[in-house]
Design brief:
The complex is a heterodimer. By secondary structure, chain A is of the alpha/beta class. Chain A has helices spanning 31-39, 60-64, 68-83, 89-94, 116-124, 138-148, 153-156, 161-170, 185-198, 234-239, 269-281, 290-293, and strands at residues 16-25, 28-29, 102-108, 176-179, 204-211, 225-233, 246-249, 286-289, 304-305. In chain A, helix 11 (269-281) links the parallel strand 7 (246-249) and strand 8 (286-289). Residues 1-11 and 298-313 of chain A have low confidence and may be disordered. Chain B has two domains: 6-106 and 154-422, Peroxisomal Thiolase, Chain A, domain 1, CATH 3.40.47.10; 114-151, no CATH class. Classes of the chains: A alpha/beta, B alpha/beta.
Chain lengths: 313, 436
């Protein structure tokens, strides 16, 4: 078996379409619930109500390996991909989208190493009471840890496991990024995904984010929330008659300013969900510069009708 | 189409092979190994007792051995990279200079947690295991010292400090793609240059997982070699048994070729190609035929506009695990053919696996290999494996015609990334035009 050597893209930038959105918040599933939660978050709890991972992740084996943030990411991804008319790997193949031309861009907050099994081990070891100069009982720690820590503990700490799980769920083999840039991460994921399509390096990019108080390493436990967005090349979306929500214009993105230095520990989730709500709010015949989504000043009108969607600018 | 050519004008490195480009180059030429018996903590009772440690005794100032170590290593590499690129540190932030960095997972202060357990042992995190109402926040709230450590070591705290030192006033990207992170951080930097979003990108990675908990976590995944230090890591050898954890950092200064030319910066190499892919096969096991790895290598070749035959050397991911090496060999065979003679070695045999920092450090090794036209050795390669029929470089080998080389980085979760570096064109010469 050989691997195709795809020619490097030589044409101009491809147009980028948004074809699917998905969210889960403590107000429920979907953009309407997300909007209600954003406007009055105090009226809701911390958890996504009635969340059943089996509804989204058919494989029990895959579910067993997933922690809460990864389940939420997968669920949001399924919601967005269903909205795009691509609910599973078979439908992606049937739509003529090659697995290696479909990638994933993700943004995650820092994942906590403080798991129950680790703390249980630390509760059992002998701790010298004589002060910090006395060494830890590392041999005892090793013996207990090797018997009591979950074998896949390491994997629960890796932010890119969100991508790993959704790639398994949908069979995606294309380019991939995971950003852990705090609040800026969500927009960075969407920006890089859009450019990856615009440059012809992928036909579809699934973008996602999530967080959960079970896994996020922060002193203030965040509410559960997840979001996903499906980007496609305009050509691909039109060919398969996908529901095009808006066009993203990548050209106008200048060298963007850095996020503020004080964004320590902030989650990428609110910014990501804000983008989804913006996309959801504009008419379907609209093109949005990426720069506008990032809150940057742009030279061109922020929204313009899109040729090919029934209105001509 | 996006098409600003991306060149490397500076580099810095600290690894088990030493501090700085010159020391590293000399160590690679000697075929020196940097894997040693762990000195940092008592490994009695541990099945693994060796690692690729950065020797603290070789430095002017001691490198912290705690949670601050990854940033300290990054800072050392950054300073050398800036100096070699002719860029002054701590200058006013330049909005056209961006940062793309991968920082390893900060290590957890187990001693603090153990000594202070009376403060957290009644949290629901331990009480309710595996109940539904668990939150790491409960522990952080009663252990403000741990919260402060976290605030110091999180990427969103470290990167602004690195950016300030580098004069990078543009966007800051923190990437994490497991053991592919370094390549992906550098690859993203290449894209930012090509698109015209930055003139200069400071890119790299740092990691330090020579820590009791990290070693045990990898042991639980059955990934580590238990052999004595000198021969612990044997990538592509028939008797290989696993990888060895290492630590270090590397930084490169990426620059738009025209920008480098304007300021008469030295061009160390062209960053010609970058490719990324997913296996979509398993969380810990890579695709046995190297499907995703081959996709990343093919994408990097396409990005560089090169045929496989143009690549004279591959710095393999080559961890030394049975399955990973066989899969990478299969992937290389897919691209280069069963009888291909492209030279391959894994420098993890000398450094151990630097995890998040691995591919950034190996990109700098590849840069040195191109500069010196010397192929680094795959140490401890004694016996060919029928599942890895590659042209393995067993000893440092001159390569006078070497022009282009690839460096692979693959990670848990099926992350794959490849970079292609080329020697700069000779004075007055012209590098073949990019196709993209």
């Amino acid at each position: 078996m050989s691997t195709r050597l795809t020619p490097a893209p030589t044409r101009g930038l491809q147009r980028v379409a948004v074809t699917g959105l998905g969210t889960l918040t403590p107000a429920g599933v979907g953009l309407a619930a997300c909007r209600a939660w954003e406007q009055a978050p105090a009226g809701y709890g911390q958890r996504v109500p009635d969340f059943d991972p089996a509804h989204y992740i058919p494989s029990p084996k895959l579910r067993r390996s997933m922690h809460r943030s990864f389940e939420l990411v997968a669920a949001a991804a399924v919601e967005a991909m269903r909205a795009a008319g691509l609910p599973n790997a078979a439908s992606i193949a049937a739509a003529g989208i090659a697995a290696e031309r479909a990638g994933i861009a993700s943004a995650l907050a820092d994942l906590s190493p403080l798991s129950g099994d680790l703390l249980h081990v630390l509760e059992q070891i002998e701790v010298p009471v004589g002060g910090a100069d006395q060494p830890m009982a590392w041999a005892q720690f090793a013996e207990l840890a090797l018997h009591q820590l979950h074998p896949f503990r390491r994997l629960t700490l890796l932010a890119n496991m969100a991508v790993a799980h959704t790639s398994l769920l949908f069979g995606l083999q294309g380019p991939s990024f995971t950003f852990t840039s705090g609040a800026a991460g969500g927009m960075q994921a969407i920006t890089q995904a859009a450019w990856t399509i615009a440059e012809g390096r992928a036909d579809l990019m699934l973008c996602h984010t999530a967080e959960s108080p079970d896994q996020t390493f922060a002193a203030a436990p965040p509410p559960e929330a997840a979001g996903a967005l499906v980007l496609e090349s305009w050509e691909t979306a039109q060919r398969r008659q996908a529901p095009i929500l808006v066009e993203l214009l990548v050209e106008l993105l200048p060298g963007a300013p850095p996020p503020p230095a004080g964004d320590f520990g902030l989650s990428p989730v609110p910014g990501f969900l804000a983008v989804l709500l913006q996309v959801d709010a504009v008419p379907a015949t609209t093109a949005i510069p990426l720069a506008a989504l990032r809150g940057l000043p742009v030279q061109a009108p922020q929204r313009r009708p899109v040729p090919g969607l029934g209105e001509v600018s | 189409m996006t098409g600003n050519a991306c060149v490397i004008t500076g580099a810095g490195i600290i690894s088990p092979l030493g501090r700085g480009l010159a020391a590293t180059s000399a160590a690679l030429a000697r075929g020196q190994g940097g894997i040693v018996t762990i000195s940092r903590f008592d490994t009695s009772g541990f099945p693994v007792r060796c690692a690729g440690e950065v020797a603290d005794s070789n430095h002017d100032a001691p490198i912290p051995q705690d949670h601050r170590r990854p940033e300290a290593l990054a800072r050392i590499a950054l300073e050398e990279a800036l100096a070699s690129a002719g860029l002054a540190p701590d200058t006013a932030p330049d909005p056209r200079r961006a940062l793309s960095f991968a920082l390893g997972k900060p290590t957890l202060d187990l001693e603090l947690l153990a000594r202070q357990r009376s403060r957290w042992s009644q949290t629901s995190l331990t009480r309710a295991r595996p109940g539904p109402a668990r939150s790491p926040a409960e522990v952080l709230q009663v252990l403000p010292e741990l919260q402060r450590q976290r605030e110091q070591t999180d990427a969103s705290a470290v990167l602004p400090r690195l950016a300030a030192h580098a004069g990078a006033g543009g966007e800051r990207y923190s990437s994490y793609t497991a053991c592919a992170s370094g390549n992906d951080a550098i690859g993203l930097g290449k894209r930012l240059i090509e698109r015209g979003h930055a003139d200069v990108v400071i890119a790299g990675a740092s990691d330090c997982q020579v820590h009791p908990l990290s070693l045990l976590e990898f042991e639980l995944l059955s990934a580590l070699s238990h052999e004595p230090a000198a021969t612990a890591c044997r990538p592509f050898d028939r008797q290989r048994t696993g990888f060895v954890v290492g630590e270090g950092a590397a930084v490169v200064v990426l620059e738009a070729a025209a920008h480098a030319q304007r300021r008469h910066a030295p061009v160390l190499a062209h960053l010609a190609g970058y490719g990324s892919s997913l296996d979509s096969y398993g969380l810990t096991k890579c695709h046995p035929q190297g499907r995703g790895a081959a996709l990343a290598m093919a994408a990097a070749l396409a990005d560089a506009g090169l045929d496989p035959g143009a690549i004279g050397y591959i710095n393999a991911h080559g961890t030394g695990t049975v399955l990973n090496d066989a899969a990478e060999a299969a992937a290389i065979t897919r691209i280069w053919g069963a009888s291909a003679q492209v030279a391959v070695s894994s420098t993890k045999s000398a450094t151990g696996h630097l995890l998040t920092a691995a591919s950034a450090v190996e990109a700098v090794f590849t840069l040195l290999c191109l500069q010196d036209r010397l192929l680094p050795a795959n140490l401890n390669f004694r016996q060919s494996d029928p599942d890895c029929t590659l042209n393995i470089v067993a000893v440092p080998t001159p390569a006078p015609a070497l022009d282009a080389a690839m460096s692979n980085g693959f990670g848990f979760g099926g992350q794959n990334s490849s970079l292609i570096l080329r020697r700069p064109a000779p004075l007055g010469g012209r590098r073949p035009a990019r196709t993209a």
